[in-house]
Amino acid sequence: MDDAGTCAGIRSQLGVYLTGAIAPADRAAVVRHLAACADCRAELAGLAVLPALLRRPPVRAAAQASPDDAYADDEGTDSEGAVGEGAVGEDEGGLAEDALPRRLVRRMMRARRRRRWLLAAAALALAAVAVTGWALHLTAPPASGPATAATVLDTRIIDGVTVLTDAEGHTLYWFGPDTARWSACQGACAQDWPPVTGPATWRAEVTGTIGAIARRDGSLQATYDGHPLYTTTADTAPGQAKGDGVWSHGGQWHEVAVTGPGRGD
User: Taking the domains of the chain in order of start, what are their residue ranges?
Assistant: First the structure.
């Protein structure tokens, strides 16, 4: 198979690779290819945000309904019997007293509709990639061994601060020189600050966005609000945060502080 054919085969499996449901043998082939192919790494990085969008907690029904219900008849007759927004409570300048609030509500409603459309588009894109990968996976001979599970993220209160942790309670960190798509911690740095393997999912309800990026070796690294995540070898037990504020490997490290419930010390 030529290079183009190899890339096409790998890209068809990126959906199941990203969700962690890929068979071990197929995962090894994808990782080897990603380590040598920048184009496929870029393709993976573009897809990495989609699972996080689909995992976001749904907006409460009441919050969704209240603006629409309150202003459903914005252009029609109001509760006092007046027609249109210009006919109610006009001030000396001739503008309706509630014109500005209503304009703001309409803008919020339009923004909400756009966001729903984007989420739907993201869901369709991820579903298309995943279905293609599953189709190939089902036609391939079964591989031995369990599928790779997603990394579970949790929270813990350490020194009065709610921080993001792994499932064992070890504090997670972000690195100042990193970007939302690239980890600056490679080689010896990654030995002292091990990257958190992606994809990731929540154990506790936490505000924020989780995703993943492709590292230089082709592996996935979990992210939180655009920050690649790490642990540190300096923390020898759960509940420690010895890496917070440390300058190491060319940049400063910070514990990932979050909002939401923590499990306590």
Answer: 61-116, 150-265
